[in-house]
Amino acid sequence: MAQEMRATxxxxxxxxxxxxxxxxxxxxSVAIALLAGGLVxxxxxxxxIEAYKLIWDGxxxxxxxxxxxxxxxxxxxxxxxxxxxxxxxxxxxxxAEGQLYVGALAGTVAALYVPGLPWYVHLPVCILAGCAGGxxxxxxxxxxxxxxxxxxxxxxxxxxxxxxxxxxxxxxxPMKEPGGTLxxxxxxxxxxxxGKLFDSRLHYGFLxxxxxAILLYFILHRTVWGYEIRAVGLNKQAAKVMGIPxxxxxxxxxxxxxAIAGIGGYAEIAGVQNRLFQNFSPGFGYDGIAVALxxxxxxxxxxxxxxxxxGLRSGANAMQRMTGTSTSLVYVIQAxxxxxxxxxxxxxxxxxxxxxASLTARVVGRRSDARPEENVAVVLGIGEREGRS
Amino acid sequence: xxxxxILETLELVKRFGSxxxxxxxxxxxxxxxxxxxxxxxxxxxxxxxxxxxxxxxPDEGQILFRGRPVAFASPREAAREGIGMVHQHFMLIPALxxxxxxxxxxxxGRSPFFGYKRACAAIRELSDRFGLDVDPEKRVSSLSVxxxxxxxxxxxxxxxxDFIILDEPTAVLTPPEVKELFRVLRTLKENGKTIVxxxxxxxxxxEICDRVSVLRLGxxxxxxxxxxxxxxxxxxxxxxxxxxxxxxRTRESGGRVRFEARGLHASENGVRLLKNISFGIxxxxxxxxxxxxxxxxxxxxxxxxxxxxMQAGSVLLDGEELGRRHPRRMTALGVAYIPEDRQKDGLVxxxxxxxxxxAKEYRSAPFSRGxxxxxxxxxxxxxxxxxxxxxxxxxxxxxxxxxSGGNQQKVILARELMLNPGVMIAMQPTRGMxxxxxxxxxxxxxxxxxxxxxxxxxxxELEEIMTLSDRxxxxxxxxxxxxxxxxxxxxxRIGMLMAGALPNAAEAIIH
Lengths: 389, 511
Known about the structure:
Chain B: One of its GO terms (molecular function) is ATP binding. Chain B: One of its GO terms (cellular component) is plasma membrane. Chain B: Keywords: ATP-binding, Cell membrane, Membrane, Nucleotide-binding, Repeat, Translocase, Transport. Chain B: It is a peripheral membrane protein. Chain B: Residues 7-242, 259-502 form the ABC transporter domain. The complex is a heterodimer of chains A (389) and B (511). Chain A has 389 residues and is an all-alpha fold. Chain A folds into two domains: 1-46 and 325-383, no CATH class; 65-323, ABC transporter involved in vitamin B12 uptake, BtuC. Chain A has helices at residues 2-43, 48-61, 63-88, 96-113, 119-148, 152-172, 205-222, 224-234, 236-242, 246-273, 284-294, 299-323, 328-346, 349-367, 372-380. Chain A is globular, with a radius of gyration of 24 Å. By secondary structure, chain B is α/β, with parallel strands linked by helices. Chain B has two domains: 5-239, P-loop containing nucleotide triphosphate hydrolases (Rossmann fold, 3-Layer(aba) Sandwich), CATH 3.40.50; 257-351 and 419-510, 3-Layer(aba) Sandwich (Rossmann fold), CATH 3.40.50. Chain B is 34% helix and 26% strand. In chain B, the strands form five sheets. A six-stranded mixed sheet of chain B has the order 7-8-9-4-10-11, sandwiched between helices. In chain B, α8 (231-239) packs across α17 (491-498) and α14 (405-418) runs parallel beside α15.
């Protein structure tokens, strides 16, 4: 009984320490990336302190700056969730970019060509159309994967180009604003636009994205379907032997993943741009992969990392306005963060384990009369493995 | 002159955790002999050979090679001394030529460039001398399995090996290729090379080997001259006469047949995997299927579960034919399954114990309702099962991959018994487990049988089959050779059947 109690204490303690070290390591990654970015600034002849101050002010310095950060974070969060959800099922959906475009296109079609509806009908219809567009686009890759065993990585990447050029064609041809000269559609009717928050550029799309993150978290960790998705993602073979329909899950997850990106695409149009035009996304879909990576492929983690990247973007814009330093500097910082996060995941595992072990040993040593080494061994499962692998 | 010892091991010990794979092994290999190493799966043959070839280092004891103590840190070091190993799974790069494969990782003199012509010439010379018939300029992808194996042998010779270890070399070969291999081995022997031949096929050992060492459960049972022993002796040494199955309560026959297979056939890419397999298991009965690994065990269990498509045959439960089968349906019908590879097929290692425990029942109450998982119930269940099966675990939320192999198996067993199954298909349920944990699993399986469960036990460990089964069948090359009652089963006879010797032939040798 006492032993069981101790085991439970160890487990919860260990989990807490785990979370703590993770946070420390992630914060460390960001800090080191900022240092590295500072070095680059020095070389470029810009004072890092001043530059960072400008970025900080631009990103979170005042209410407007922070709202701009959230505006930038919205499509990143949708794209990050798109990648995250597929990733949890063992799929690499590199096609968020294309799914954003098709979602935006489908939503715009619904916005422009379904007239005469009140906003509370029209807007949901448009969002659903965006959903469907993204779902179908990702579904193509999912279907090819399930039916033909074709790599979803290659197919989603290729479909990105198809989608981008499809939108280019539509806005220069069939959907071009009547009488306009620019390659863009007419302005969306008000009934199809997302409302603005706090009288700024920030729109309800951000809340939609956060809601999507929470919904995905709930699906993955609380539902029967999420259980299946995670099992398939972690061990496809075992899932099959256990009787989980692997192919059905692959297809459905791919489609829902695409649907999320599809809403993201439409939200960018209906919330920020108000009309569809060529190359409206500066690579949100690809940046979403980075967002997911830094967010630990956890839906809620994505919220934080999307805001971080959004902040870097809006801050960089502010910096460029004030000092003339190129925004590409921010990409250096962003890339460094990604590299460090990946290192964090794959290289520092052993180091982290050792730190947790020694911390647990210390705390346990203080709390109980038992030999600390043995407890740690039990907690960590060290020395318990037997037999040949 | 023939008795010159080339390699000797002294009290060699190798442990993996609490499991002793090699227990104080002292063997001597003579120069220019073909020495067979015989033993069941898990007897420690591969561990021993991996230590000789530098893949593993011993925990205790010494290896004397040419009279000098040696300690290899890597296969490369062992190769430099003249010890080479041909693995069961070839380590060749298909896109490269034979010469490129053979010379891979070797440096010729001081030149930084690869002397392709020189390598080819050297290979041709060796090929002629030892009758290997290997063309150095051919691509490996264009070679047959037998030829690829000769390339592997060539690799060891090219590195100057005098002591060559072959790990179950005939397992992948067709009979004519086996003949060819034996011809090569004899030539090698005439040229003074020492060959260690790992196998559990008695017939082949009798044909080619000079001396035989038998291992069982990590211990050396003995070394004998092949000519002085009979196949029956060897089978007895391998299986262990002294281990007597415990006296068990005989089941009254006459219960109705619950699980039945009729004429199962399966093949893949023209290779026959299962041939005309038929059996029936009554309720409260354990049917044990013995056989050497790789004779269709995995395919049989997968075919029954619906994971492997069959060409013909039917599976019946309670007299009713089951049409299309798949794992989820079989679970619903009360068929439990313990897969052979628990880490690959049985568990999701990164998921927690509690989540793995509900893998078969997560869709139904009480674990979920309306598609939402009831976390509290899942946790309570895990706590109960951990207690019931005394799983050594930090808690129900711990990832199952952190548990030891034995405890992982307990989790699978607990999960499957939660179904209260009418039929259980158990593959190698105690593989890699220590004696105590294995006993625990056996007790659970006997309990399930006593509750009326029909158990199909597929195991390569004969002792396990003898301990648990009510009836025993032997699987050889995808075919069930013979089915007998436990009471009539003789170890010798089963051993012979496992080695592919026909029943009447066995009689002839014994008498």
